[in-house]
UniProtKB/TrEMBL annotation:
One of its GO terms (biological process) is formaldehyde catabolic process. Belongs to the zinc-containing alcohol dehydrogenase family. This is Alcohol dehydrogenase. InterPro entries: ADH-like_C, ADH-like_N, ADH_Zn_CS, ER, GroES-like_sf, NAD(P)-bd_dom_sf. GO terms for cellular component: cytosol.
Length: 374
């Protein structure tokens, strides 16, 4: 079938993107689903910094590629062998398909699915196939999702059925920002009530970590960003202290206020500077967690003696160490009960034609989670 999709032809276009137009909204061909696959009508797709990192080259992926990895939509058609989804079902798409059979999947760590990582890096679906093309030119899939498009063919294993009655725009956020930010707090760190937390970088991911820290009963929550509007929002959402990362004395002020640092510092900015600050403000015996995805060329250094002498922990968190089938339903439930007000992080709802300008706004650090609605 012919669909409209936002195609990234090559990486590294100069900003502003509203002028250089790295994403070309054009007509592309979408082949029908193969075995184990599903055709989804995309209804909402969020703009995440990880998309921006593909556009600007910090997260290299094969091109041409139909971008987008955070979305919700409606099942239109399923392959014969897919028996647990039907046309009309609503789904949230997850940006790592989990095969269910590899060692990480068997260990309950589907975020680390090995075939999922291979197909995501190659730009294919979990099957190894590409279903998108323009004439003879095959287009790559973005993390098996490619949701900046009217329709997507995805693996069944990229879909989580959505039972709750929430809007598609709300549901889309659960596919990346919520899974990643909330999961980092609940699954990766297992923050306990009464502990102290810092969140560095208050985008879609970091603000979700903040909400999860509030929901988990953290006693003190330090929110850190470069942007004063984000800090003001963080205070409304439950931060007990806000700090502008550009302040000279930021680290000292936080260490003083928290009596030597926080139990858990979450780096959610994707920046080495934020990572360094996160490590500095983690207390003796504390844990520094990062969900940021800076360019692979950027390095972070620390002194191993602090790791040892202070019994520190440094951890990465991918998709919030989530089990998406379990966690999306849980987080949606918390949202509906008012305990995780993720709607407060929603930015503008835009059309596919305005997607490049949306990425300009994201690059400034000012926008909240903008969502393309179809
Ligand atoms: N681990 C995962 O599974 C996963 C999933 C999604 C996104 N990510 C990554 O998480 C990061 C955040 O994504 P997002 O979509 O929320 O981004 P975003 O652009 O919406 O937000 C980033 C925020 O960090 C702030 N910031 C920038 N430099 C800072 C600094 N030095 N100190 C403090 N704050 C700073 C910006 O002002 C902005 O508010 C990105 O690196 C993204 O690629 C990881
Ligand atoms: Zn994302
Ligand atoms: Zn697997």
């Amino acid at each position: 079938m012919k669909i409209r999709a936002a195609v990234l032809e090559k990486i590294g276009a100069a900003a502003p993107y509203a002028q250089s137009l790295p994403l070309r909204v054009q007509e592309v061909e979408l082949d029908p689903p193969g075995p184990g696959e599903v055709l989804v009508r995309i209804r909402a797709a969020g703009l995440c910094h990880s998309d921006l990192s593909v556009i600007n080259g910090s997260r290299p992926r094969p091109t041409p590629m139909v971008l987008g990895h955070e979305s919700a939509g409606e099942v239109v058609e399923v392959a014969n062998d897919v028996r647990d989804l039907r046309p009309g079902d609503r789904v949230v798409l997850v940006f790592v398909p989990s095969c269910g059979g590899c060692v990480p999947c068997a260990e309950g760590r589907p975020a680390l699915c090995e075939p999922g990582a291979v197909s995501n890096t190659a730009g294919t679906l979990l099957s190894g196939e590409r279903r998108l093309h323009i004439g003879e030119t095959r287009l790559n899939h973005h993390t098996g999702v490619s949701c900046f498009a009217e329709y997507a063919v995805v693996s069944r294993r990229s879909c989580v059925k959505l039972e709750a009655d929430i809007s598609f725009a709300e549901a889309a956020l659960f596919g990346c920002a919520v899974l990643t930010g909330v999961g980092a707090v609940i699954n990766t760190a297992r923050v306990q009530a009464g502990s102290t937390v810092a969140v560095l970088g208050l985008g879609g991911v970091g603000l979700n970590a903040l909400l999860a820290a509030v929901a988990s009963g953290a006693r003190e929550i330090v929110a850190i960003d470069l942007n004063e509007d984000k800090l003001a929002l963080a205070r409304e959402l439950g931060a007990t202290m806000t700090v502008n990362a550009s302040d000279e004395g930021a680290a000292t002020a936080i260490r003083t206020a928290t009596h030597g640092g926080v139990d858990y510092a979450f780096e959610m900015a994707g920046s080495i500077k934020a990572m360094e600050l996160a490590y500095l403000i983690t207390r003796r015996g504390g844990t520094t967690i990062t969900a940021g995805l800076p360019s692979p060329e950027h390095k972070f250094s620390f002194s191993p003696v602090s790791l040892v002498g202070e019994e520190r922990t440094l951890r990465g968190s991918y998709i919030g160490s989530s089990v998406p089938v379990r966690d999306i339903a849980r987080y949606v439930d918390l949202y509906q009960r008012g305990k995780l007000p993720v709607n407060r992080l929603m930015g503008e709802q835009i059309g596919l034609a305005d997607i490049n300008a949306g990425f300009d706004r994201l690059a400034t650090g000012h926008s909240l989670r903008d969502v393309v609605v179809f």
